[in-house]
Structures are given as C-alpha cells and as structure tokens.
Amino acid sequence: MEATKKQTQTHFVLAHGACHGAWCWHKLKPLLESHGHKVNALDLSASSINMKKIEALRTLYDYREPLMEVMKSLPPGEKVVLVGHNVSGLNLALAMDKFSQKISVAVFLTAFMPDAVHKPSFVIKQVQII
C-alpha cells in the first residue's frame, strides 16, 4: 500500500508594481494554481480595474488599501506568501508592520526592501511620502 503525499496548499498574495495591475501576474497565477496553491493577484487603488480615481489617492496608505483589505480578511492562523514588485515593496513593508503574524515570507521582486534593523516602514516615514 503506497502512502499518499499530502499536498500543502500555499496562499500567495501578489501585489503589482507602478503602472501595472493584477494582469501583470497573468502567467504566474495560473502556474501556481495548477500546482494546487491559492493565489490572490490584486489591483491596488486606482490601478487596472480598481475603480478608485487617482485624484482620490493622497498617500501611500490610500494606494495600498486593497492589499490591507486582503490581509485583514485572512482567517486567524492563516499565513501567506506576500509578493511585491517594484513600488509594492513599500506596500509589503506596511503590510509586514501591521500583519506580521499573517505572513510566512515576503518576496521583494526588484522592489524596495527594508533593512533588518528598522521597522519595515522606517524609510517611508523618513522621506515622508505617506
């Protein structure tokens, strides 16, 4: 009798970079899903099909709101692999500050990456872009 291998499903949350949308993950998302993983590729505020107007965004906090909503909606005990491209490194840093218990790993794909000494949002607060 052969033992069956239990597939471990990983939940990926994909955050796009500047001038992109969830569409930029169109090759990665189905590949991960075909291996049994759960994938959320989201449109940040005023990006792609997100209907928020760019004029309504005053801070980086406004821009990253869809990511924070996904993180908030995760059930207790669930952890995700958070992937951010380009400017979404800043969004990942903010999510890491607020939802560290819900993130198993953060992947910075050619993105701003915080250092290991300060809180992830340290640089953002230093340059006051929020």
TrEMBL record:
Residues 11-116 form the AB hydrolase-1 domain. Keywords: Hydrolase. One of its GO terms (molecular function) is methyl jasmonate esterase activity. It comes from the Eukaryota. InterPro entries: AB_hydrolase_1, AB_hydrolase_fold, MES/HNL. GO terms for biological process: jasmonic acid metabolic process; salicylic acid metabolic process. Pfam families: Abhydrolase_1. This is AB hydrolase-1 domain-containing protein. It comes from Camellia sinensis (Tea plant).
